[in-house]
Amino acid sequence: MTNAVVEVEPLAVGLDPGRLSRLDRHFARYVDDGRLPGWSVLVSRHGQVAHTSSYGLRDVEAGRPVTDDTLFRIYSMTKPITSVAALMLYEEGAFELTDPVSRYLPAFAEQRVLVGGTAAKPVTVPAIEPVRIWHLLTHTAGLTYGFHHVDVLDEIYRANGFEWGTPRGLDLAACVDAWAGLPLAFQPGSEWNYSVATDVLGRLVEVVSGQTLDTFFADRILGPLGMTDTAFSVPEPEADRLAALYTPSPAGGLVRSDAMGRAVLTPPRFLSGGGGLVSTRHDYHRFAQMLLRRGELDGVRLLGDRTVRFLGANHLPGGVDLEQFGRPLFAETPFRGVGFGLGVSVLLDPVVTRTLGSAGEFGWGGAASTAFWVDPAEDLVVVFLTQLLPSSTYPIRSQLRQLVYSALVDR
């Protein structure tokens, strides 16, 4: 088990080191019994890193350990970065959140909503109102993911080549046009559904900024924050640092998934703002700290204080939670007692959620069981990285919360 870049003794920031060691022992068992290949975790408080640890292997077959600089596919933890990119442009007056998306992406001009039928013969009606930018930021646009396997629209997405990937040869602009040509799951703004909305938002960033998404990220977010290891692909000289991707075996243990995992070794044609980035524990902590510090880190300000507060507020109508407003399907967060902001989940009431935490904390996770959250009330950031797909396999995130919050001992 490795430990590096700790900046402060845990007790100095109200964390009990003995209790933090429970976290390490608990997740070490996940590796020792074959549930995870390896993992890396970071806990910081009051702006200082109080605990880091890594355990297990980034490549089981090659026997390479997880190290502090291991590269992980963060998948949907890309979404908050794309949301910040859009909000940076919003702060510049480039658009209003109530603007129709079709003003910038004309393919969304005449949307229709699925009301019945089959994937082969869908029945649709015209959308009552247009898809707006805030619908993309809040996953209330009526878009979906083909991997949901819940209703007819998910099947339509799969029939068009959209499940865990995109059709070969299509770039971001072409994928967005394809999605715009499919029906919506519901009238815009009427429900919450985890979806490709953030990928569409990434294309909006491209059109409004005049830059490709990777260039915008590098110039405006990753470079200024010093996130030097975060990108849409891993260059060949750094390939050995990349953790292999695994899925659980029905017989127990892990199955390596190189078909999907090796995709990041080649610069992608489709720049996925919804799930395309690779990053490190250190880099993502920089991004999370920027959010905790209300848009600024080490003299670099990406967003205004009020904008970050706005991002972390619950934007679901009437202040309801996802259980009341969302469809009962998979997402990278619990639904009960949890709302949704602009690209992040928002904890409304830990008592209702039956979890330790603070009202107002926000964060998200990725498909390979990664997670992060920012807790303004406790001045706390947690980042956990591993590479097990899908993230619903084990209760890693809820257990991580129990272990972290039970280590807080100040008053």
UniProtKB/TrEMBL annotation:
Domain Beta-lactamase-related: from-to ranges: 23-395
InterPro entries documented for this protein: Beta-lactam-related, Beta-lactam/transpept-like, Diverse_Enzym_Activities
Gene3D superfamilies: DD-peptidase/beta-lactamase superfamily
Superkingdom: Bacteria
Pfam families per UniProt: Beta-lactamase (PF00144)
Protein name (database record): Penicillin-binding protein, beta-lactamase class C
Protein's organism: Cryptosporangium arvum DSM 44712
Organism phylogeny: Bacteria, Bacillati, Actinomycetota, Actinomycetes, Cryptosporangiales
